[in-house]
Amino acid sequence: MFSVLMRAxxxxxxxxxxxxxxxxxxxxxxxxxxxKKFLIYVTLPASIIxxxxxxEDMGFNMLIIAALGILLNVIxxxxxxxxxxxxxxxxxxxxxxxxPAFNIGAFCLPFVQSFLPAMGSVTACMFDVGNSIMCTxxxxxxxxxxxx
Length: 148
Fold this sequence. Notes:
Blueprint: H1 2-23, H2 31-53, H3 61-83, H4 89-98, H5 104-115, H6 118-147
């Protein structure tokens, strides 16, 4: 338990150090763009490749995880429709577009890699496959049809 708390504390401390460094001017304000590019184009793909290479047989269960990513996005679209059912079409569309989508790659994956074995990261990536399908047009198709 101590090791898990220590890892979580380490992540929090790194975030706090970054915020302090940016607010004090130690790091230039435009450094964030360079760091984001490095994370998205180098670190994230490298971690995904490393974790997938550790798995020998993914099996059919991983397709179920990807389908779960789609299903949970559809559920969140329905929740957005339910909580705004008496609102204007524009407000409904806004809620239905903003509620679904899970930030797996940039936010969740570093924590998953730290706390779980390689299979946990692979499972998160497969969930993100279904999530990505919805984020890149699936959600918009649902919302456009519902609010038309």
